[in-house]
From TrEMBL:
Presence of the UniProt keyword Calcium in the record: no
Species annotation: Sorangium cellulosum (strain So ce56) (Polyangium cellulosum (strain So ce56))
Keywords noted in UniProt: Integrin, Signal
Top-level taxon: Bacteria
InterPro entries per UniProt: FG-GAP, Integrin_alpha_N
Pfam families noted in UniProt: FG-GAP_3
GO biological process: integrin-mediated signaling pathway
Name recorded for this polypeptide: Integrin alpha-V
Lineage of the organism: Bacteria, Pseudomonadati, Myxococcota, Polyangia, Polyangiales
Length: 240
């Protein structure tokens, strides 16, 4: 439903062909409203922090309108833009999340009925990657992020949420994390605290991850795009 209502494109992608950068173009998202026939109209451009590179849409504040969370790479922040129902947003709330955030995922990780955010980030060269979890109470995003260290050096890239162990709470799978790490799974204790469960290694390392029931056994599986080579890995979830 969110995908039908909103197609949000980061203006940064437009800059590939631009010789001179218009002021503010690295600090904005645009919303393209679906006409219902496969065409889109640009509806609104909204300011963000410096260098927005990834986003996710979810209902964060409970008003019934889809909201958007944007990670801002240069600023080291995540901003939540509350949707007002017409393709525009109310004032954004920004929270420092740490150096080099990359991939945001929304789910109710702590099971309080409100959507939270998990963000994969790479603190610094040769340092372990981190998954930062931000508790959302619907309005306030000022709580300190809870970090889970991935345990190996390197950059995590893609991030997805799914109930990987069947206990009813959303877990995480992250692509990358080191040169030899295709992906890792992190299990949720039900209160939004994560621990690394399984690490899947290969020579290329992973750059993106998707989750779905590939073999139809009712257990979520992982599909991982390898880094720098034209291959994907399918990791079948074990029957429970
Ligand atoms: Ca909302
Ligand atoms: Ca929550
Ligand atoms: Ca779970």
């Amino acid at each position: 439903m969110l995908a039908q209502l909103l197609f949000v494109q980061i203006l940064r992608a437009h800059l590939a062909a631009a010789r001179r950068l218009p002021a503010g173009w690295l600090r904005a998202v645009s919303v393209l409203v679906n006409h219902g026939d496969g065409t889109f109209a640009e509806r609104a451009v909204t300011a963000t922090g410096a260098t927005p590179i990834a986003l996710t849409a979810a209902e964060f504040n409970g008003d019934g309108y889809p909201d958007v969370a944007v990670v801002e790479s240069r600023a080291g922040t995540v901003s939540v833009l509350p949707g007002v129902g017409d393709g525009t947003f109310g004032p954004r709330q920004s929270q420092s999340i740490g150096v080099s955030p990359k991939a945001p995922v929304a789910a109710d990780f702590d099971q309080d009925g409100r959507s939270d955010l998990a963000v994969a980030r790479a603190p610094r060269y040769l340092a372990p990657g981190v998954i930062a979890m931000l508790h959302g109470d619907g309005k306030d995003w000022s709580s300190k992020p809870m970090d889970t260290t991935l345990g190996t050096h390197g950059a995590p890239y893609g991030l997805v949420a799914a109930d990987l162990d069947g206990d009813g709470t959303p877990d995480l799978a992250v692509a990358g994390g080191s040169a030899l790490q295709a992906a890792a799974t992190l299990l949720n204790d039900g209160e939004g605290h994560f621990s690394v469960s399984t690490v899947y290694e290969n020579a290329a390392g992973g750059v993106a991850v998707a989750v779905g029931d590939v073999d139809g056994d009712g257990v979520p599986d992982l599909v991982i795009a390898d880094h720098g080579v034209a291959t994907v890995n399918v990791i079948l979830g074990r029957c429970r």
